Amino acid sequence: FNLNVLIVGESGLGKSTLVSTLFNNDLYPPKPRKDPAAEPPKTVEIQSVTKDIEENDVRLHLTVIDTPGFGDFVNNSDSWKTIVDYIDKRFDNYLDAENRVNRTSINDTRIHACVYFIQPTGHSLKPLDITVMKKLHKKVNLIPVIAKSDTLTDEEIENFKRRILADIRHQEIDIFAPPQYENDDAESVTETHEIMSKVPFAIVGSTQQVQTADGRTVRGRSYPWGVIEVDNEEHCDFVKLRQLLVRNYLEELREKTAHTLYENYRTEKLSS
Amino acid sequence: FNLNVLIVGESGLGKSTLVSTLFNNDLYPPKPRKDPAAEPPKTVEIQSVTKDIEENDVRLHLTVIDTPGFGDFVNNSDSWKTIVDYIDKRFDNYLDAENRVNRTSINDTRIHACVYFIQPTGHSLKPLDITVMKKLHKKVNLIPVIAKSDTLTDEEIENFKRRILADIRHQEIDIFAPPQYENDDAESVTETHEIMSKVPFAIVGSTQQVQTADGRTVRGRSYPWGVIEVDNEEHCDFVKLRQLLVRNYLEELREKTAHTLYENYRTEKLSS
Ligand SMILES: Nc1nc2c(ncn2[C@@H]2O[C@H](COP(=O)(O)OP(=O)(O)O)[C@@H](O)[C@H]2O)c(=O)[nH]1
Ligand SMILES: Nc1nc2c(ncn2[C@@H]2O[C@H](COP(=O)(O)OP(=O)(O)O)[C@@H](O)[C@H]2O)c(=O)[nH]1
């Protein structure tokens, strides 16, 4: 059961932390301390980590693909190219594998979801966000999240989400939504609505165990003025993101990739 | 008594809020809600607001210059140009005024300080920060601050400050420090050290009055997990920034601008 997730966002938005939080273990080795004399990278890189994890008795062969350098340059005009090429290459590999004589067990390395990190400015999407999301939304299931949402008060999050969704609608950007079927039972309709009404998810990540004021030990961030709890739905939407990715819509993400995004790519490629 | 302060940083780092917090009143009119269909600006703009304020019985003719658009484009290679041109133009105006026959009362519009907002990534300075600070540091008193520092825990702030200062030293960027004199009394040496040991100031801004858990009403930000107090030095360095700008080093900022930065500019200009 392959799940390939692409993580996109500028440096310092808590991407590595979120990945470790999602899979409840430090997926990445600790980052080396940056030497001030070190030359920063000149192009966007692709880094991928694979791990077998178990979720609800489902064994997942999880690959997380990070994109260090994205959005970090003075000039980010080409930031998206490396990423689009990478997604296309996975489609091409699948196309080749499908065309072989022996294709009983194709290794599915296509990207099933792209988590896009939005900087918590409080205003709305940045030009770079819009540019990149428009390059990606037809090729991958796009899941925008508000990074480091503990920067924003509840009221600011509500306004920010509204403005982001207005930008997304205005720019005609497709973001992932699970298909709804006529015969869905009431419970699953409600559950879908509960998860999707929180999009874009306001997330907080942490692998640190901290003490709350009332003595509980939780994953969170400890400030002089209080402790934010990652798994507390009153504090952020982390739980919802996790449910979407590895519990409720795992199948939908893979199917939409295989039956819609890949097929569209294949059709375009073969007819050009 | 003129004080002209330039505010530089990308959108959403809390610059307008900080300006209003510094001068304890809403210096800017409330921002209009951005229409998603609105075309974002294509170049960096200069916006300036002037107000007479009173500080410690000193009447200040304060001008705050904002730079909307800075750092907000996909390609920010020219982000600094408008700002450097603006600073140079103030120097040129002063040069012209100095050369007139009647120069008894020159209006000093030179920039006395530039507060540079660093995004709280937790890592270190971004390429844009370094590029811009190097363009500005010989022309204006540079005061770097960590924006929205309530995003970072105390430990993260300490590490971040250390890495920023290492970058600044390595890149040979001059940041404002008040001159120290042989005959300074012990109290002023201690006071200088207390303020300067906090650079870059980790700031938080807010003009909202909120209730703390123990019932006090303070300027701050109210989160579900706690209230951060702007004027509480255990929570952030806002008080230190304010002391530097409008209390302790007001004279030093104006003198260094007049006697060093302006004179260097004048010498370069007249000898080229
Ligand atoms: N406020 C806040 N800080 C976070 C969060 N997640 C990570 N951080 C901190 O942000 C800094 C950068 O995190 P990192 O995961 O390395 O970001 P990346 O560069 O996007 O991979 C570190 O100091 C983290 O502890 C979060 O949800 N909220
Ligand atoms: N977490 C945090 N948010 C802040 C702070 N100051 C302002 N904000 C919020 O950040 C958002 C953008 O602030 P604004 O002052 O308009 O930023 P500007 O674009 O740099 O002028 C608003 O929602 C503010 O309430 C701060 O110190 N900490």
TrEMBL record, chains A, B:
Biological-process GO terms, alphabetical: cytoskeleton-dependent cytokinesis; intracellular protein localization; mitotic cytokinesis; septin ring assembly; septin ring disassembly
Cellular component annotations (GO), alphabetically ordered: ascospore wall; cell division site; Gin4 complex; mating projection base; microtubule cytoskeleton; prospore membrane; septin complex; septin filament array
Main localization (coarse): other
Statement: the UniProt record of this protein carries the keyword Kinase: no
What keyword terms does UniProt attach to this protein?
A: GTP-binding, Nucleotide-binding
Kindly list the GO molecular function terms attached to this UniProt entry: GTP binding; GTPase activity; molecular adaptor activity; phosphatidylinositol-4-phosphate binding; phosphatidylinositol-5-phosphate binding; structural constituent of cytoskeleton
Q: Where in the cell is it found?
A: Bud neck
Q: Which superkingdom does the taxonomy of this entry point to?
A: Eukaryota
Name all Septin-type G domain ranges: 1-272
UniProt lists the family membership as follows:
Belongs to the TRAFAC class TrmE-Era-EngA-EngB-Septin-like GTPase superfamily. Septin GTPase family.
Q: What is this protein called?
A: YALI0D23595p
Species source reads Yarrowia lipolytica (strain CLIB 122 / E 150)
